[in-house]
């Protein structure tokens, strides 16, 4: 049977099913294979917040969404081109996001009476015409795999379990991707269990062949490979990127690495990864709480380690007092805050940009800390290294903000050769030069880092105000003013050491969009779309929040209107208003969800249409 | 380790021979009140330091906040005066990172057992090799006289004008209940005893907790006089010595027996009981340690002073190193390139 | 009290007679995994509630964060799902403010003993009248499987891929070392036992700590099977009953004796030992309680289940009220005008 | 001998001596007596930070400063008109603050060789002419009292101790105040120890007579009584005012009072005072730490108490997570933060305004909390009641900021009759009306307060995001946005319920000074001086920081330049800039000291002189 092949620029697909249906696996494999064939990819897993929600329920739906394309893809896609729905609940939950005319692949075995009831459907949507706006493919995947695997000595339950692999195979055919990478991966995973391997390989093949042979499926799609820089690639989540960033930074700084942390969603995985790096000599303390997490890290920093602590909102709140200590001690410390929806416990699995204020201002007294933010999953790697570089160079704690969306989302990452990574130069104080605990580098204002064990440099530090240079406890009024100002200036000096803000688009004009953090993808997509349409606007994405890039004020001054979309009630907006003393237009979506590109696009279109009405 | 710490940690170590107590003093005025129990503790620490055979640069004192927590300022070694209650958390990180250091904690009854309680019990449980000197004055002194979790019921303080309602912790029992391996008690007024206890603590691998009755002349003067004054202590305290029966009294004429699980005082002079009937101290017996600890607030029996328990268990930072070495032996030293590539990668 | 709470607290109280377990269920779906140990605990709590004779509106459940801490949502009484580790601090404030309430805490091994450790030991020390149900699954479940301070050495979890290095707390010993007055242990698989323990906890005035082995089918399945499965538990556990010797075994043919301070298993069937030689449980003996608690991680002896200790001591909130009443008796009820004027004032 | 009497408007006097010299007592008595004669008074005790510093040392000096006058006195005075120096160190430390021509009363017995050495004097300043710029009275107070009390059976040491009373008597003569109030007070204090009473009475008299008979002391000064509102008066510190405010607020709200706290300088005294109020039925928990302090208070608030927690910077940092819980629970809670110099432990006994940022912004997620600040020691009373009123009316935690200066400083306080205090109306939910945990008052947006023990209202609350009205846990995106906005709006609504900002001076013009917190006294003094000189400027003192008074923007818009002096690096300045999007001139003294009026005056004069140069 000959089929049509259509070329597409980018596609969004979502695998959805019950928590037990293995959708995460289908998604990850699809994403990896798409990377291997050279597509640009962006993905996000979407788990239920319950550990194991009852089967078939609406709140038990688990999904994995992938956008892939032949040019740089910055988000997971707003609307679904393809929905794979393994049961009724997964259709119900995800249907609102399927674009008109999109493809729905439904496993009819998941639409029995019980399933329909759990999904709160009165009638079977596969039969009642309600999906007429979509291209619906109904397949009884369970039956097919049962049949295909009938001769294997496997339980029915296990046989059923391969339906996610069947679905994967089918989508491989649909988007013309090879099955080999997944076959190879299965081989490695189930090498020791030949029956199971065989079952999975057959299911994969069966899915692929189903597409090949189906009468209904008349069109195959192809997405050309993106024009990507040469190199080794892998898919990476923000959390793993942070973990790798810490190890790489320690390597570049020639320091041992310490992590003191306490589990908290959605930051825990950084701790998981680093706990697995034992052979790298990394030391980890899973502490009794977040306070002990950061305090142990401060202890290790004092001992000469590249030291770090990782957490999310509630944990950051607990670390506040110790952060102030790190500020006055002037010890290097990387603090990674994976933001989630607050306040309080809030919505732990949902992302938000609600911790910017707290990162900037959330300590008693004048306790300035540099704050930077990652803009994509892969960027978490670079920004973690940057945090370590700044921390050690300026002898200061540094806060890196990521969020639940970056933390769990993946994108392909060009694995940088270690030599390409920025150098981190650390020197400990030695007796060779004149030593004083608060003797400072003239340029950076960083104090010397003298670690216990250094002969002859015995000294005392602490949380009381201290005399500059000697570090002796001092209550002298003038000295206090001096120290408060030095600590502020030291952080400000970092502005000389970070890249200028990069302006995309017109050099000057009416509208400048300023974003930060994980909304990069959505804003970039909207920005590209609108500029491609010939609309006039410019875009700056901030990775440095404190200090702000030196050229930001200049850039802003060249635009009539500044628009700052944020997943909070306007925190960066407030900062920009007070810093540059000019009005900033905010857009505040606080729903525990990342921006969709079209939401930004709509806002921008409206702004562009109402030029006068600012 | 292929890192720049190596040089400091391993290659350059000073010779501890010839150190004297003076080498551990610095030029700062000690700013405790005249008569404060802290002075004796400071002197005894300075006195035993040279005897430990530890290079001076390897010694670090970490403290929290309180009068007692000023201690590190007065020692000419590495010192870290941190924030209230967190000394043990900081010291745990330091010791795990730097097992080559000898890490000491100076803390108060409030710093250690009130705000610092959680770190205390977890450090005990983990058995990190830290030496804790807890200055117990049964009061918050630096903040001018509020009751602490070790104050006595009924005690009148600025926050308990009608008397403390709380029952106090029994610090030795809390430490034992948390899994501490070395637990001891001493007092400011007996320098030799403190020297002995500090040396024992230093020698112990794992957590070593020494509670020290330290008189606060300003806010709780005389709280321990009954147990520490020369003319009283023979009758009111009993010295715990491994393998020895619990004998006390000005004339060594009293002993402690166990009646069921209840310790009781008996006379050794009326012929009814002899030393053979008495509890014989065994530092390695956790149950006995708990029985002795429970004598603390019992006015019918003498207050035990000395080492309650000293048992061997691998220390935490040691196990951390073992596991790392295991990992390297099993899987080879980490290859950063391989780690970054992960399991699934591709080339473009 | 001349305040508007009075009306609610004193004047309007419902009649608890006729309440049934159903009255304590609400319409929310219980969202624990199928097979979670939480279900049994929930059922037993709902079952005993009507037997306590407490008006429904007087019952409040406070929890922290964790799978176990979802508990209050499933009870049709007042419920407070707070923040991680703080349930006991919140509940202490509530109970001191409102001694008329029956305050229960649902917490996990992480919530209670890791981040919440300090509040735990202080609540024990103060003896606030709270009933603590600690769901021990030896794991952090809500965050998907990291080790907790009660996980076993060597246990492989997401944060200990090569095995846990920490030694765990012994919860009963920690509670005893902190001064808890009522300490017990039970497990999810024996409903009658749980009902008994919960009733005992409710009756106890002061802190009541019940550790409950609760199976987590997802992240630590079977952790307690050796002690809780019907076919094993007779041989692996011993039920503590006040005044009764420690006998166990499928045929009640084994017992526990004390050899010095060390418990040892003996056979009752070979004629060498009889029930008279065995340890006789005494809930009022703190030392015995500690000996029994210390049997916990000792594989040579059965694991004790039941009430370790139940001793009487005035509860904290009671003493707070007494002191207020004392003050009023001694000095008369406070006169706000006089208070505001203070000792030295003048007229203009 | 006849003496001249001179009338003065206001005088600043400082009693200084060694920690053991009883200067606090002299100061308090002088201050009380001045209040009794109808002067306006402002005082501040200045202790060494060591508990008991060695005798005679520079860091062991203890002092008590009083400004008193015939019109409202707002500060303790910048420069000293009179210094009583009991020893060499106390002269050395305080001399820089004595105005030229000021009076120094020196106890020559405190200037022996040992004293001079400890004070690091090479020569005796009483003899070497270095004090020629001042009016120096050298008196061997020790000798005089020894002689006067020789016939009493008292130890020499005790006799010596009365020298502070002698000094007090002398200053009574100097400023023409009666000795009777102090004599009466001594009578009450030492009634049971007649010898000691006699000694003190004689010393008091001796001091007074010394002035009367001295040949050198030719002038006596008199300060007319101030024109004060009728009523009962007392001296009060900010800390005691907070404590009384809590009790009074509970009384007005007809609620029992709970305080959960942990000692910390300089807030501890609030806890001390409240611990002494047992007969008022107040319940206090001295908790194991600050976290337990606030959590126990939240528990009590849930139980229907007027609930509070008190702390200073490091403690506030520890309370952050629980504050967020209180926000989402929407429970009333009064949080008093007595600010001290930070960051970290900083300088515990020194005041600062460094916690404003943290109070406003220092929580993860969007967690708005109303923030108010007291402007004088006595104002702490009113603002504590205001905090309680807002907390219960809007069902929200409220932060009241004071600082170490207000906390320990005293001023005379007209004791308000209880009926004069604002009403606080609290109603608990009952079954009588339809109940839902998050049912809201239409105007305030406050939710209902239903306390355990209420028949039929059993419900569950917690830190997870919840559906409005029902309070059921909800992850619905739209609901989250709604709740985030409601919580923000609820706090904003308070703007409708607070007094307008009060503008002192011109209605519009060039220069507007905006202050907040304890700097009121210094700014007011400077403002009054300059306007009296005919200079044109206006002044607004903010007591409400979040929300800001509704009319503030309007007021600001009527001035060319806004000047905001703060004891921090410009925190209110930043807030005003971002809120009103206009530049604000800051003045940042961060020395652990309150402003002096002349510092503000200098700044203002400079600004007024450089009108163009903004
Ligand atoms: C977070 C925090 N809370 C409270 C304080 C205030 N504070 C300092 S020391 C102390 C108690 C000291 O008592 P203890 O540890 O017994 O020491 P001592 O002064 O008696 O030696 C307190 C409450 C603080 N510095 N930081
Ligand atoms: C301040 C803070 N830190 C960390 C977390 C993440 N967290 C939630 S529950 C939990 C541990 C739960 O373990 P446990 O108390 O044993 O409860 P279980 O889920 O096992 O019943 C952790 C670490 C949090 N919610 N808040
Ligand atoms: S106040 Fe007490 S503990 Fe503090 S230094 Fe003085 S005597 Fe020592
Ligand atoms: S994850 Fe474990 S503890 Fe949590 S609900 Fe499931 S079975 Fe229970
Ligand atoms: Mg103390
Ligand atoms: Mg658990």
How would you describe this protein?
The complex is a heterotetramer, with 2 copies of chain A (614 residues) and 2 copies of chain B (348 residues). In chain A, 62% of the residues are buried. Helices cover 36% and strands 22% of the residues of chain A. Chain A is an alpha/beta fold and 614 residues long. Chain A contains 20 helices and 23 strands. Chain A folds into 4 domains: 4-222, Pyruvate-ferredoxin oxidoreductase, PFOR, domain III (Pyruvate-ferredoxin Oxidoreductase, domain 3), CATH 3.40.920; 233-420, Thiamin diphosphate (ThDP)-binding fold, Pyr/PP domains (Rossmann fold, 3-Layer(aba) Sandwich); 432-497, no CATH class; 504-609, 3-Layer(aba) Sandwich (Rossmann fold), CATH 3.40.50.920. The longest helix of chain A has 20 residues, at 194-213. Chain B is an alpha/beta fold. Chain B has a single domain (4-244, 280-314), classed as Thiamin diphosphate (ThDP)-binding fold, Pyr/PP domains (Rossmann fold, 3-Layer(aba) Sandwich). Chain B has helices at residues 5-11, 38-48, 87-97, 109-113, 117-126, 171-177, 191-203, 225-228, 233-236, 286-293, 316-331, 336-341, and strands at 59-63, 78-81, 102-108, 131-136, 182-187, 208-213, 237-240, 247-248, 254-259, 262-267, 303-310, 346-347. An 8-stranded mixed beta sheet of chain B has the order 2-1-3-4-6-5-11-7, with helices on both faces. A 3-stranded antiparallel beta sheet of chain B has the order 8-9-10. The longest helix of chain B has 16 residues, at 316-331. Chain B is globular and about 90 Å long. Classes of the chains: A alpha/beta (614), B alpha/beta (348). Strand 2 of chain C pairs parallel with strand 17 of chain D. The complex binds thiamine diphosphate (TPP) (2 copies), iron/sulfur cluster (2 copies) and magnesium ion (MG) (2 copies). One thiamine diphosphate (TPP) sits between chains C (65-68, 84, 108-111, 135, 137, 139-143, 148) and A (262-264, 290, 314-315, 318, 345).
